[in-house]
Amino acid sequence: MSQQRAILLLADGTSYEGKAAGKIGTTTGEICFNTGMTGYQEVFTDPSYFGQLLVTTNAHIGNYGTANADTESAGVKIAGLICKNFTVPFSRQLADASIQDYLETEGLVGISDVDTRAIVRHIRTKGAMNGVISSEEFDLKKLKKILDKAPDMDGLELSSKVTTDKAYTLGEESAKHRVAVLDLGTKQNILRNFLKRDCFVKVFPAKAGMDEIMSFKPDGLFISNGPGDPGAMDYAVDTAKGMLEQGKPLFGICLGHQILARAVGIPTYKMHHGHRGINHPVKNLITGKSEITSQNHGFGVSPEAIAANTDVVEVTHRNLNDDTIEGIRVVGKPAFSVQYHPEASPGPHDAAYLFDQFVDLIAERK
């Protein structure tokens, strides 16, 4: 299998030939890249990556195997994997399986032994675009026809494909705080962070109504991360508006940040190629301190709209690489959000204080 041929074809006609990784097959999605040096399994299972072909810039993928404890959801969520060195033998004693066995079990198609640096430079220059990986079809004209049928991420609603089917609870009912989570594609480490802070959590499907959410009698409300275009999620925006009307502490992460912004009239936009990695510098404008953050998003909140609506939204965090909006709070409301991931797993943990900030806000208002 390690010698099986594989091809990556991009929407602009650029192609790369390498070797098959994971399941033999064909897959499509929007190509993106992550600059993290570790945490590949956490990334693979992050629901925010649903529908995307992931390029890993770290040269070695698979060297420490896979472990059930490292998953962020019920299974792999990326649409395909693109890497340089696909290392099947692993050295970690706590690992449960090799990366090849894991990806075959999960049914993920991938390609290795390609020049990932060249691919990343191409995306950074040309922007995000759809691609197709195949280890069974090598005719570029046929692959182009398959690629033409792949949906564009711009305008695509995906949270309903990764959300929970029905509401469920976590933690002890006797906990100090009750937090309602709107699951747009939540990561498990977000929920673990709430549990660590003495919260009883109820996770609701993405399209749950406010009556159902408020029947839990929550002390605080949370809107999770997730995949897809926030501009195609009016149902979630309406829920966020309903949450704001409750006057309870409200916290949003990543897609939740974008949904909160749209709920107060701030539009979102599709980025040229997005931010994905665990080394993104962000400045907290309230404290003046900077933090290294974990990020994964291809959409952003409009800085022009925020600048024109300072009576509605205050910027709290900015990206030090490109000055994009990384955090906001709603004026006159106990509501705030960040574009990045304070629950970062495996790290960094510079932004974990945001969970404390949310819980403290709950405690102040009880």
From TrEMBL:
Its EC number is 6.3.5.5. L-glutamine binds at residues 48, 226, 228, 255, 258, 296, 298-299. Keywords: Amino-acid biosynthesis, Arginine biosynthesis, ATP-binding, Glutamine amidotransferase, Ligase, Nucleotide-binding, Pyrimidine biosynthesis. It catalyses: hydrogencarbonate + L-glutamine + 2 ATP + H2O = carbamoyl phosphate + L-glutamate + 2 ADP + phosphate + 2 H(+); L-glutamine + H2O = L-glutamate + NH4(+). Gene3D superfamilies: 3.40.50.880, Carbamoyl-phosphate synthase small subunit, N-terminal domain (3.50.30.20). Pathway: Pyrimidine metabolism; UMP biosynthesis via de novo pathway; (S)-dihydroorotate from bicarbonate: step 1/3; Amino-acid biosynthesis; L-arginine biosynthesis; carbamoyl phosphate from bicarbonate: step 1/1. Residues 4-134 form the Carbamoyl-phosphate synthase small subunit N-terminal domain. One of its GO terms (molecular function) is carbamoyl-phosphate synthase (glutamine-hydrolyzing) activity. SMART domains: CPSase_sm_chain (SM01097). InterPro entries: Anth_synth/Amidotransfase, CarbamoylP_synth_ssu, CarbamoylP_synth_ssu_N, CarbP_synth_ssu_N_sf, Class_I_gatase-like, CPSase_GATase1, GATASE. PROSITE patterns: GATASE_TYPE_1. Coiled coil: none annotated. It comes from the Bacteria. NCBIfam families: CPSaseIIsmall, PRK12838.1. Small subunit of the glutamine-dependent carbamoyl phosphate synthetase (CPSase). CPSase catalyzes the formation of carbamoyl phosphate from the ammonia moiety of glutamine, carbonate, and phosphate donated by ATP, constituting the first step of 2 biosynthetic pathways, one leading to arginine and/or urea and the other to pyrimidine nucleotides. The small subunit (glutamine amidotransferase) binds and cleaves glutamine to supply the large subunit with the substrate ammonia. Composed of two chains; the small (or glutamine) chain promotes the hydrolysis of glutamine to ammonia, which is used by the large (or ammonia) chain to synthesize carbamoyl phosphate. Tetramer of heterodimers (alpha,beta)4. This is Carbamoyl phosphate synthase small chain. It comes from Neolewinella agarilytica.
